[in-house]
Amino acid sequence: MEPSDERGATVEGWAFTFCKAAFLSLLFGKYAVLVLSLAAMVLYISAYGLGVRTWRCWAKPPWVVIFFAIVVLVQAYFLFWHSPAWVL
Q1: pTM of the full predicted structure?
Q2: Which residues contact 25 (CB under 8 A, 6 or more apart)?
Q3: What sign for the dihedral angle of Cα 57, 63, 69, 73?
Q4: What is the pLDDT of residues 43-79, one digit of tens each?
């Protein structure tokens, strides 16, 4: 594989990641951040329980789970108990 082909495959991988994010955002609407953060948190905890110790996320264990737990709590607060002019 030539360097330009490898670079193209890398860029396409990022494009596919954003494609998935956009599709899920359309699917869940204003609850996208809440649902997707909760799913990430649950899946990372499950992966850890199944023995996976190497994660590809930008944050490493346990920080990724803590980060998404905070996002879930803040987003749930704003969506269900407080109506700000903006929602995360």
Answers
A1: 0.79
A2: 32
A3: negative
A4: 999 999 999 988 888 888 899 999 999 999 999 998 8
